[in-house]
Design goal:
Layout lengths: L7 E6 L2 E6 L6 E7 L6 H10 L31 E5 L8 E9 L2 E8 L4 E9 L5 E8 L10 E6 L1 E5 L5 E8 L2 E9 L5 E5 L12 E4 L10 E7 L4 E12 L2 E9 L6 E3 L4 E3 L2 E7 L2 H14 L12 E3 L1 H4 L5 H14 L3 E4 L29 H9 L3 E6 L3 E3 L3 H5 L18 E3 L5 H17 L4 E4 L9 E3 L5 E3 L1 H18 L4 E4 L17 E3 L6 H11 L8 E5 L13 H9 L2 E4 L8 H21 L3 E4 L7 E7 L6 E7 L10 E2 L9 E6 L15 H6 L4 E4 H7 L1 E2 L7 E8 L6
Helix pairs in contact: 4-5, 7-8
Length: about 725
């Protein structure tokens, strides 16, 4: 065997291997995926040998390699790792390694593009969860050649996919239907998503996943990418007939830059967003588990019990009569709410959505005594007080727009069309930034605000601003960095302040914004039929404690569909739960149910917000079986739901995922939120017993044989609790 004489870096964590041969002039990726174990010198040498592909007809005269920085210099005809030019020259990067540092969880490779006069740093960080974070920094050293700056068009983090990865899943959507899955075969040429909305968007790719054909929640080998960035983005899965070196294709992503947006003069640098790559042999649940583990291990991950929330939006909309809101606060406290969030409508001139954005002071007409009476009442009840803001936005009908039109992003030729009657402030403008920071800080201090619902209700179009020479410069990159700086500065000034990321519902759900926020508003849609799907797929990346889930009124405000109370309540339980409804209009019986449900949420949130999310692969698309299993598999809570009717009369035996087959369990139906109506004469035997108390069950029956589920009527859900055997027996 020919031994590799070059150093090979092998990062391993949680069943994942990432192997790079650090050879000159450019390292190549030998493997990303399944853990290859403790490879000795012989093992590494054989892996390097196996990474040499055949030479093909009508192709390069030497075998193609898949390097860490694929470009045409390697004969790579796919999307390159680097695109750019220096005044029309230096368009073909010829990048070589100048150094590499390896630690157990990271590999940092220093590269030099001599032609363009750039230094690059490529950082791979393998998290203990097995998620591989890839980031690039491009610097123009102080002695960079020539007077022209290097115009960076793109950097794309690329990792290889094997040939067997042929089926692709990603997401699209619209207002009130975020994260709608789209699935198909990964064709040659590939699948590219370019996001030009200045936010990930309601149709964000969310998690671009490629796997072996037929992969499901519980089975199948899958490779996935998330671009952790809140601005414009590019995501791709690409297959070329000649492959990618010895590999079958690539998964890649990065920021989508506008022409001329990043121009690197001597001394300047650009840092890409972090692209998170994950692999699993255990289907989509395996991927979700890795991301949830990674997010939960962050020092800033919310650690206090997630407070039951009441948000005022669907309760009162713009009707901010203080006495109405004080009564709502009293009723909220009575049912067990722990945080009240005053939504849109409280600030200067805000009677509807046509005016006021930008003027972040309390409206004296609506609130003659300020917000203190409400904030004090909320705090007096022992609840936290939250406030809605939309700092990056401005209505032309506002004092701010009149006084500072120069802070609005838009071309010198004039503003384009408004969207929800609003425009976008240039947060990167130092004075606008200072204004927003001081306004928010003053509100937080004055009203002892515990929580901001930080909204962002329009896309960024023509997001340019005038530069010193009067030209219009693209601004989405700077805007995104400025947003992060604004949030970071506010949080460092006000430790303990929590922030929710909302963007017309779930239009800004990404790991960039989540590095400085505490939850996302998954969707403006509280209809449980839609919510089952939205929460399922939002949970593909985020653990339940980061996903806002509210119970609305009987008739959904956004779909018009009427849903039973128990279905609404059970659906909202599987997230960071809340209420978005006018409690003052609810009957005593409805309030009693809400109070029981609130107590149930507090009882089970430790499990729901710390356990493993599991989702069953079912043949019937009208049904859902999902749950959360304790880390030691000793307890679990499952939701069995039906959204519409289907042909099979029996739901059949359904296996409960995530439990330990060798253990003994007990099962019962939780009834606090109410019981579902069913489409059968008599329910299965176990169910009839379990609605009244515990039923002992062998683990193998639950995991292997399965429980026959009642056939629910459409728009119904059932809550099943699993615990260890009764210690008294
Ligand atoms: C957006 C949000 C809603 C609500 C309104 C207020 O649409 O997604 O939850 O806060 O704004 O205007």
């Amino acid at each position: 065997m020919t031994r590799s004489t070059t150093r090979i870096a092998h990062l391993r964590a949680a069943g994942v291997s990432f192997v790079v041969e650090l050879r000159a002039p450019l390292p190549r990726v030998l493997h990303w995926g399944e853990d290859l174990g403790e490879l000795g010198d012989d093992g590494l040498a054989s892996l390097a040998l196996s990474a040499d592909a055949a030479s093909l007809h009508s192709a390069l005269d030497e075998p193609r390699q898949f390097t860490v920085w694929p470009t045409q210099a390697d004969g790579w005809s796919g999307t390159p790792a680097q695109e750019g030019h220096r005044a029309g020259t230096a368009t073909t990067p010829r990048v070589t390694m100048t150094g590499a540092e390896e630690s157990p969880d990271a590999l940092v490779i220093a590269l030099r593009d001599a032609d363009a006069g750039l230094d690059l740093t490529l950082t791979y960080r393998l998290d203990p969860s097995g998620v591989l974070g890839v980031r690039t920094r491009v610097s123009a050293p102080a002695d960079a050649p020539g007077p022209a700056p290097y115009d960076l068009a793109a950097t794309t983090a690329l990792l290889p996919l094997p040939t067997r990865a042929q089926e692709i899943l990603d997401f699209t959507g619209k207002w009130c239907r975020e994260r709608s899955p789209q699935r198909g075969r990964l064709a040659f040429a590939g699948h590219v998503r370019e996001i030009r909305r200045g936010r990930p968007g309601l149709d964000a790719p969310h998690l671009l996943t490629v796997g072996v054909p037929g992969f499901g929640f519980r089975t199948g080998e899958v490779w996935a990418l998330h671009v952790g960035w809140s601005g414009n983005q590019r995501w791709l899965a690409e297959r070329l007939p000649e492959g990618a070196g010895v590999h079958g294709g690539v998964l890649g992503g990065g920021e989508l830059l506008s022409p001329g947006e990043i121009r690197l003069a001597p001394g300047d640098s650009y840092t890409s967003p972090e692209c998170c790559f994950a692999w699993s042999a255990e289907g989509l649940d395996g991927l979700a588990g890795r991301f949830h583990t990674m997010l939960r291990s962050r020092p800033g991950h919310p650690s206090s019990p997630r407070p039951l929330t009441l948000n005022t939006w669907e309760a009162v909309y713009f009707d901010h009569r203080p006495e109405r809101l004080l009564a709502l606060a009293d009723d909220a406290a009575a049912v067990g709410v722990e945080r009240l969030v005053l939504d849109d409508g409280w600030f200067l001139g805000r009677r509807d959505d046509t005016a006021g954005l930008g003027d972040w002071t309390v409206d004296p007409q609506m609130w003659p005594d300020g917000l203190a009476p409400l904030a004090d009442r909320v705090h007096g009840h022992g609840m936290q007080f939250g406030l809605w803001v939309e700092p990056e936005m401005v209505n032309l009908r506002s004092r701010l727009a009149r006084e500072h039109p120069e802070w609005i992003l838009g071309p010198s030729a004039g503003l384009g069309p408004s969207s929800r009657h609003q425009y976008v402030l240039n947060v990167a403008h130092e004075e606008a930034f200072a204004y927003l920071l001081e306004s928010l800080d003053a509100l937080v201090a004055e009203y002892r605000i515990d929580y901001l619902k930080w909204d962002h209700n329009r896309e960024l179009h023509e997001a340019v601003h005038r530069d010193a020479h009067g030209g219009d410069r693209p601004g989405v990159h700077a805007q995104t960095r400025a947003l992060y700086r604004l949030m970071d500065t506010l949080r460092s000034r006000r430790p303990g302040l929590e922030i929710e990321s909302c963007s017309s519902g779930g239009g800004r759900v990404d790991l960039g914004v989540l590095a400085r926020t505490d939850r996302v508003w998954a969707s403006d849609c509280n209809d449980p039929v839609e919510r089952q799907a939205i929460q399922r797929w939002t949970g593909q990346l985020l653990p339940p404690e980061l996903i806002g889930a509210h119970v609305g009124g009987p008739r959904s405000h956004t779909t018009g569909r009427v849903a039973d109370e128990s279905f609404r309540l059970i659906t909202a339980l599987f997230g960071h739960a809340g209420i978005e409804d006018d409690l003052t209009a609810r009957t005593p019986a409805e309030r009693e149910t809400l109070t029981r449900w609130a107590a149930l949420y507090k009882e089970v949130r430790g499990l729901l917000h710390g356990g493993r999310v599991v989702r069953a692969d079912l043949d019937d698309d009208a049904t859902y079986l999902h749950g959360v299993v304790a880390p030691d598999a000793g307890a679990a809570l499952y939701c069995w739901a039906r959204t519409e009717t289907s042909v099979p009369a029996q739901s059949g035996r359904v296996r409960l995922p995530g439990l330990a087959p060798g253990r003994s369990y007990r099962v019962r139906v939780r009834t606090e939120a109410g019981l579902p109506s069913t489409h059968q004469v008599v329910a299965p035997a176990w169910y009839r017993t379990a609605v009244n108390g515990w039923v002992p069950m062998a683990g193998t029956v639950l995991t292997g044989a399965g429980l026959p589920m009642p056939t629910l009527n459409p728009g119904q859900a059932l809550l099943i609790e699993v615990a260890g055997p009764d210690p008294a027996n």
